[in-house]
Amino acid sequence: MDDWQHGGFGVYIHWPFCLAKCPYCDFNSHVSREIDHKQWRNALLTELRHSAALTGPRKVDSIFFGGGTPSLMEAKTVAALIDEVDRLWGIKPGAEISLEANPTSVEASKFAAFSKAGVNRISMGIQSLNDIDLKALGRMHSAKEALAAFDIAKDNFKRVSFDLIYARQNQTPETWFAELRQALDLAVDHLSLYQLTIEPGTRFGDLYNKGKLRNLPATEDAADMYLGTREICADYGLDGYEISNYAQRGAESRHNLIYWRYGDYAGIGPGAHARLTLDSKRTALHTHLDPKIWLDTVKAHGHGMQAPEILTQEDQAIEYLMMSLRLTEGSDMKRYAHLAGHDIPLERIEGLEKLGMVKTDQDILQTTAKGRPLLNSVLSELLR
Asked: Fewest C-beta in 10 Å: which of 50, 118, 269, 295?
């Protein structure tokens, strides 16, 4: 079988528009007050058909609507896209269909319509349960509004996840842990918990370079927040199954597991990336980043993709290792060797084992609690 079948097949659909650009965000998102929803719906459907023509017959394990702010989409657009995915490939029974949403009251009012359209999992960008920090993060909702939206989501979807950002300005480990426990007390079954990173080209990046982004936690405090987060989540029954993701058993993000287990996925919409095995050759594809250029290209050519790149076996092995070692379940060294055509030298693994950074269980290589926050260093040693 082709290697991608170890991870499954998903479809990612990117909606690039937001009501405002958050100062920490480096995703492909754009503020636009006027959107021709019919035009965008038709363009996304057109690109879906192009991807299906490339892959041929398959069954879809998951669909993920990301952005941007997909909850700004019309529900009939979401429904049309889900129906088209099913027509083109076939959606497996029980497949996960996720949509990212902001917890404003306007967007929460659309949750029932999204559920009727076929969405069965919502991922809410709450980011903080503190109004002062929400304002600093450029969010357009209050903590009260977020909690109300969470209740609405629980009434409409079988599965609800939400995101929080920690290591924020003026935050201490103690205040973060109190906020985390507040979130866990809501009986949530999946949390994505991201350390604030200062990305170049963002508003926060500009402020940081000018020395104006003050009172960020010290490196030691941020490390304590990460380690404490894993312990507290475990106390509430949420395993840290990936570096930044925590879930009750069975509530893991099945779409993201396709990425981390190095399956295949189609990427639809501006700035979307894909990995597709075509004629037994794994191919990297990406679409035009700019929404207008993407839209014009779809109109002209039936898709917005740029030139594909066939990945070498070594490229695939490296990508597999980089993705799978993010997971607590780890990497299959037989699968790595099959992709790369060689094993990782044993002395490299043994050296990291002596440092307490990795552990092995037969053919499975896993990062430890000590090694997981230092994954980039672990990968550098393994792949040098």
From this structure: 50
Q: Tell me if 302 is assigned to some domain.
A: no
* Domain assignment of residue 267, yes or no: no
pLDDT computed for residue 28 by the predictor: 67
Give yes or no for a cis peptide into 118 (omega within 30° of 0): no
**Which tens digit of pLDDT belongs to each residue from 102-120?**
888 678 889 999 999 999 9
From the list 304, 271, 283, 277, the residue with the least C-alpha distance to 47 is 304
Query: How many structural domains compose the chain?
Result: 2
pLDDT of residue 199: 81
Judge if 320 and 249 occupy the same domain: no
Which residues of the chain fall short of a pLDDT of 50?
Answer: none
Tell me, rounded to whole angstroms, the distance of Cα 231 from its chain centroid. 22
Residue 308 domain flag: no
What pLDDT is attached to residue 201?
78
Tell me the two tokens of residue 337. Answer: 């060797």
* pTM (predicted TM-score): 0.94
C-alpha angle with apex 186: 183 to 188, nearest 5 degrees?
Answer: 85
What is d(CA 341, CA 343) in angstroms, rounded to the nearest whole number? 7
For 251-307, the pLDDT digits (tens) are 999 999 999 999 999 999 999 999 999 999 999 999 999 999 999 999 999 999 999
